[in-house]
Amino acid sequence: MNRNEFASTQFAERQTQQLADLIPSMVWTSRSDGYAVHFNQRWYDLTGLTAEESIGWGWAEAIHPDDRERVTCEWQCAVEAGHNYEIEVRHRMADGRYRWHLTRAIPVRDDDGEIDHWFGVSTDIDEKHESEEVAEAMTRAIVEADSNAIFTVDEHGIIQFHNSAAAEMFGYAPSNLLGRNIKKWSRVRNHTS
């Protein structure tokens, strides 16, 4: 590479870095094998991790312990298969709180179709999760307050959810109703009635 090509490459890298730092999401790149090599400033500001702590597989330390194995396994699967990666994950922020992020990554391929590197973005979706949790709690409160028996079953007839009125109607303690097959139970109940 001659001096002009080298200067041009450095200029392009600086421009790419500046663009990545403007994005309000956490942006990162990794090698073809999934080893993280670069993060934008937003990553460092939000997670409180340094470049040295983040590089390689160190970024996983910013993942909630309950999510870490799932996230790293799915990332390794995407890298091995060479397909896009998308996952919702909790990242630890610099202040110690966890916030939900939608993380997406795509493989960047060379002219021969081989993966050259990966480009990823983690976007904060914590407010979306909070509003979903509030809506779910409100729905559960309304259902629980209803005097009618309400329950849901899966495709096999297994009770997945019920309110107190359903447990009372079926004559079970609430904890004993979940996981029962409503089809088998109703046949037995009908024969004993």
Structural account:
There is one protein chain. The protein is of the alpha+beta class and 193 residues long. The chain has two domains: 3-125, PAS domain (Beta-Lactamase); 146-192, PAS domain (Beta-Lactamase). It contains eight helices and seven strands; from the N terminus they run αββαααβββαββααα. The protein has helices at residues 3-22, 41-47, 51-54, 65-81, 126-145, 164-170, 174-177, 182-192; strands at residues 26-31, 36-39, 85-92, 98-109, 115-124, 151-153, 159-162. The strands form two sheets. It has a five-stranded antiparallel sheet with strand order 2-1-5-4-3, sandwiched between helices. It has a two-stranded antiparallel sheet with strand order 6-7. A hairpin with a 5-residue loop joins strand 6 (151-153) and strand 7 (159-162). The longest helix has 20 residues, at 3-22. It starts with a helix and ends with a helix.
Low-confidence parts: 6-12, 187-193
Sheet with the most strands? 5 strands, antiparallel
Taking the alpha carbons of the first and last residues, their distance comes to 88 Å
Strand content: 15-25%
Radius of gyration: 25 Å
CATH class of the largest domain: Alpha Beta
Kindly give the count of domains. Answer: 2
Helix fraction by DSSP (H/I, runs of at least 4): 40-55%
Mean pLDDT: 80
Structural shape = elongated
Number of helices: 8
- Topology-level CATH name of the largest domain: Beta-Lactamase
Structural class: alpha+beta
CATH architecture of the largest domain: 2-Layer Sandwich
- In the sheet with the most strands, the strands line up as 2-1-5-4-3
Succession of helices and strands? HEEHHHEEEHEEHHH
CATH homology superfamily of the largest domain? PAS domain
Beta strand count: 7
